[in-house]
Amino acid sequence: MFPSATARSKRAGLRIPVDFQVRCEYGGKQTVMAKAVNMSTGGLFITTSEPIELQARLGLEFLMPATLNSIQVQGESVWSRPCALQAKQVQGTGIKFVNLKEPHLSLILDYALTKLYDDEFVEGEGIVQLLSDIRNLPPQWRLKAYNILIKKGGKHLPSPQSPRS
To answer: Are 33 and 39 in contact (CB under 8 A)?
Structure first.
């Protein structure tokens, strides 16, 4: 089961690429270590050696990049990519955060917004996808994200096509 275009448009926040370990506990099973591939305030996309069942409730723990603050949160497996279908894809599971609260919510939002200063990130994600993600942020964070992009200048925006004669 893959995320639909509708699900992508309802994304809870700015999705950013990450690379850190996540400790997952679920179903009374032994702790599973996963690798986080991307993250937003809505959840994580993780890869594991063992597939995680859909709708499984998980206890998650990870260190927030750049801050080393430990985040412990409950999650639910909401979609799965059992195998990579394209070269850029990896096998994994989409985990929705169930009880993310302050100050962890702000830590993730702040980290995501700092990625907007990174030209490589902005170009790699594509401005259209970023603007779609930003549109779904809470108003105060949305304004902050737009201001970051505006201060960077328009070099990352598509150039207007010249008028045809």
So the answer is: no
69 and 107 Cβ atoms separated by less than 8 Å: yes
Q: What pTM was computed for the model?
A: 0.77
The first and second tokens of residue 51, run together, are 């597939």
In angstroms, the CA 164 to CA 21 distance is 52
Q: What are phi and psi of 95, to 5 degrees?
A: -110, 125
Backbone angles phi and psi of 15, in degrees to 5: -85, 130
pLDDT at 6 over 90: no
What is the residue extent of each domain of the chain?
5-154
**DSSP state, 154?**
G
Q: Give the C-alpha separation, 11 to 133, whole Å.
A: 7
Instruction: Give the residue from 81, 34, 37 showing the smallest Cα distance to 58.
Output: 34
Q: pLDDT for 78-134, tens place per residue?
A: 998 776 565 566 789 999 999 899 999 999 999 999 998 888 888 888 788 888 888
Cα(129)–Cα(135) distance, integer angstroms = 10
CATH of 5-154 given 2.40.10.220, 1.20.1250.20, 3.40.50.10490, 2.40.160.30 = 2.40.10.220
Placement of tokens 């009880």 in the chain: 99
Residue 164 scores a pLDDT above 60: no
